[in-house]
Amino acid sequence: MVSDIAGTTRDFIEDTLVIDGIMFRFIDTAGIRETSDILEGLGIERSKQKLREAEIVLFISDIHKSLEETIAEFNNLALTKDQTGVICSTKRIPSRCTSRPKTQVIAEKSGVKTLLITAKYKETLQPLLT
């Protein structure tokens, strides 16, 4: 089941994909945030475990969040020096939208590679493959 309601994801979804002969394992987890809900807390702990095991972390953030909020949430992941982080800002319009400069500002302020992606326009996913 999928919901827009924050805190409803409890488990993770995992699948593999081979790109140019290299196997990638993608894991979609519950969002990591503070909560007092016991079940949501268990889902978040599972997310944190998967995060600790990851080599590359694609941090998906809504482009409508403030720069400060996006950067703070990413920094709270506390990635190690051995992990690579990529902030992906989602949007439901093409990558040529006026929000592109915001992703550049996030990249400059956070020091992390930042992309604007949308599943509707597959060309925006290309930078993930490079």
Number of domains: 2
**Low-pLDDT stretches:** 93-98
Continuous helix count: 3
Kindly report how far apart the N and C termini lie.
Answer: 31 Å
Give the topology string: H per helix, E per strand: EEHEHEHE
Radius of gyration from the alpha-carbon trace, in angstroms: 15 Å
Tell me, what's the shape? Answer: globular
Assembly context of the chains: single chain
Largest sheet: 3 strands, parallel
How are the strands of the largest sheet arranged? 3-4-5
Compute the number of strand runs: 5
Strand portion: 25-35%
- Overall average residue pLDDT: 77
Helical amount: 25-40%
Class of secondary structure makeup: alpha/beta
What are the defining features of this structure?
130 residues, two-stranded antiparallel sheet, 3 helices, three-stranded parallel beta sheet, 2 domains, globular, alpha/beta
